[in-house]
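Render this sequence as a predicted structure.
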Amino acid sequence: MQRVTFDEFQRDTLKYLNQVEAGESFIIVQADKPIAELKPIINNNKQLRPFGLCAGEFTVTNDFDSLLPEEILNAFEGR
């Protein structure tokens, strides 16, 4: 990672921002002490999955949402 003095960054801010936009990262230093890190923001916009992606791969029975038997409900409740 490239080190840039605060004065250099201040003199030519647009140059460094263009480089960050191109994917580079910088550490800004003042008196040989790191004071900031300048890096591109990673875009995490994930594309939505298409509707019906698994169509036809499984079936849901008609009693899918019916009540569970009493012994299974008791097991979930710790009885």
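Summary. The CA atoms of residues 9 and 27 lie 10 Å apart. The beta strands are 2-5, 26-30, 33-38.
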